[in-house]
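Narrative summary of target 7.
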Amino acid sequence: MRGKLIGVVLWIVLLGTAFVALRYHVVRTRDAVLLVRKPAFSLEDCLVDVRNWRAPDWQKHAALRKALIEAGHGDVVANSLLDDVRGLFQRAPPRPGGRRGT
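Modeled conformation, tokenized:
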């Protein structure tokens, strides 16, 4: 009897995990872990770490970007893109006077 109970509990956990994977994006940001609803059932981008994403990454994951913005987490995308732009200026070659372009 105890073995059956454990089996039932494991199946419930497995089905719950599968449902979350199909229906939600679990997004790791610098500050938090977000659970964002997907527009449709899909296994695409179930668990995503966006802490070091740049503009090309967001272009490849348009559905995730749209879901974040619609869920009110557009700041995650915006901050990532701003960091990307800041990085361009920090990597700029030095000016002739020795100062970096900022």
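Residues 2-23 form the longest helix (22 residues).
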